[in-house]
Amino acid sequence: AGSGAGAAMRTEISTAAAFVTRLLRAGGGVGEEQLRCFRERLQEAMREHYKHHWFPLVPSKGSGYRCIRINHKMDPLIGKAAGMIGLSHERLFQLLPSELTLWVDPFEVSYRIGEDGSICVLYESPQPGGKAAKQLESRTSCKEEWRTGRSSPSKSYNMMTVSS
């Protein structure tokens, strides 16, 4: 990895940060300048967090560590970036889906809203080495599905969360 990881992660990280920023914008009430600032802070936080956990040769390695998750608890990277622009956790919970999982892996960024929503791919690029990933059949590429998925069906059950 080393210094090369930073450049390699750029597209994946900016895709993920842009997605979270878009969700915030859709929630309303956050200024463009704040959003731009939030996006930059989130990208910085992700770059720092993923620095030694980015394995292009084994893209799934470290996936849990890089997973951004909101599940009645705010993801620390999002929370930190939002804090820098003065957004409280309470406000974030109002603006963002209450259950969001965002996977930021080499060559692919995908997300799911709600615990049983479908997994949607935001960014995908062929892996060097030519082996095209064919395990995508099960995933739907749902462009703007998140607009409709504001509330998740059941809020009463407890989720097992894996802490990094």
TrEMBL record:
Gene name of this polypeptide: Btg1_1
Domain Anti-proliferative protein: 96-115
Gene Ontology terms: biological process: negative regulation of cell population proliferation
Basic and acidic residues bias spans: 134-148
Compositional bias segments (type: Polar residues): 149-164
Family: Belongs to the BTG family.
PANTHER family assigned to the protein according to its UniProt record, in alphabetical order: ANTI-PROLIFERATIVE PROTEIN DOMAIN-CONTAINING PROTEIN, B-CELL TRANSLOCATION GENE
Superkingdom of origin organism: Eukaryota
GO-annotated cellular components: cytoplasm; nucleus
Protein name: BTG1 protein
SUPFAM superfamilies per record: BTG domain-like
Gene3D superfamilies xrefs: Anti-proliferative protein, N-terminal domain
Cross-referenced PROSITE patterns: BTG_2
InterPro entries: Anti_prolifrtn, BTG, BTG-like_sf
Species this chain originates from: Piprites chloris
Span list, region Disordered: 128-164
